[in-house]
Design brief:
Elements (H helix, E strand, L loop, with lengths): L1 E10 L2 E11 L4 E5 L6 H8 L7 E6 L14 E4 L11 H11 L5 H10 L14 H13 L5 E5 L7 H16 L3 E5 L3 H7 L2 E6 L2 E7 H7 L3 E6 L3 H10 L4 E5 L2 E4 L4 H10 L6 E6 L2 H9 L5 E4 L2 E5 L15
Helix pairs in contact: 2-3, 3-4, 7-10
């Protein structure tokens, strides 16, 4: 488990992370979301002891990262796939990590096979494509067979097969009882992968809840109806106190009613329905709704991007946008 308590990071007068408190639990994939400049990368770096917090603390299974002996056996992380010596082969890069953490060298061969890099194990990393570099970074995270794994933009540069593979890998790790914490800007992938969401904006915690609850609380859900007896259907709905929005093209939208109730109501009045479908916003729509006031960089059609007064372009994402 990862536990954050009052975690804060300031750079001069700018606050990149502001009093974050949440836990990342085992057995589920927890997604970490936020607009560019929200503080995600800084938060993940503090989790791994790469940045020191101004205030607050992070505990990895009850200990600070610096207190962990052979930390790769506790927590594996992919923060920057380019953080490797380009002159070393994939095998030797992982071997150095293994030797410095008391991990058997046989484990190097295992993780190279897991990520699909066995055929290029002896090739230098500087010749790797972006996707191959991502796979090598994931291999490094898996090397110590840790119970906690952190991934920052793990699908970056991967082809469709690779994206499908890493999605299933994260799910299988969580199903095995491990703690999986993943940050990504790809909402479609997060919707397919994460069970729980932690959302931050301008360094502050905005949401800490299940995927289903997040979408439900931050978007509109309704039932869409279409009928060749539209006017009669409208009358029946109004007579039963159902609020209806006429959406055009003969489509009616009903908030606050279940498909079952509406279907039974139509059937009791012998009304034909051509459509009776529950509608719910996507994760992307719910995310945009919640974070609308926390976006640091606003782009306007036909105009240069504008930076709001809060932003410090160098604070959280000095090395990459997150």
């Amino acid at each position: 488990m990862i536990e954050l308590s009052g975690l804060t990071k300031r750079y001069g007068e700018k606050t990149a992370v502001n009093d974050l408190t949440f836990s990342v639990r085992p057995g589920i994939v927890t997604g970490f979301l936020g607009p560019n400049g929200a503080g995600k990368s800084t938060t993940m770096r503090m989790m791994l002891g790469l940045d020191n917090p101004t205030a607050g603390s992070v505990r990895i299974d009850g200990k600070q990262y610096a207190q962990l002996k052979d930390p790769l056996k506790y927590i594996g992380a992919l923060l920057d796939a380019k953080a490797m010596h380009g002159g070393r082969s994939a095998h030797n890069h992982l071997l150095c990590l293994a030797q410095s953490n008391g991990i058997p060298s046989s484990r190097v061969t295992e993780v190279l096979d897991t990520v699909g890099l066995t055929a290029v194990a002896r090739k230098k990393a500087k010749g790797f494509s972006l996707g191959m570099g991502q796979r090598l970074g994931i291999a490094g995270a898996l090397l110590g067979d840790p119970q906690i794994l952190m991934f920052d933009e793990p699908v970056n540069g991967l082809d469709p097969e690779g994206i499908h593979w890493i999605r299933n890998l994260m799910k299988s790790l969580a199903a095995a009882g491990r703690t999986v914490f993943v940050s990504s800007h790809l909402m479609s992938e997060m919707a397919l992968t994460a069970d729980h969401l932690v959302v931050i904006g301008q360094g502050r915690l905005l949401a800490d809840m299940s995927m289903a609850d997040f979408i439900r609380q931050n978007s509109r859900s309704y039932v869409r109806l279409r009928s060749p007896q539209r006017e009669r259907l409208l009358d029946v709905l109004h007579e039963n106190g159902v609020t209806v929005v006429e959406a055009g093209n003969g489509t009616l939208e009903v908030d606050g009613g279940s498909p079952e109730q509406l279907g039974e109501l139509a059937a009791s009045h012998q009304l034909v329905l051509h459509e009776l479908s529950p509608q719910q916003a996507s994760l992307e729509e719910a995310f945009m709704q919640l974070t609308a006031e926390s976006v640091e960089y606003h782009a306007h059609s036909g105009e240069p991007a504008q930076q709001q007064s809060w932003g410090a372009s160098w604070n959280d994402d000095r090395t990459k946008g997150a």
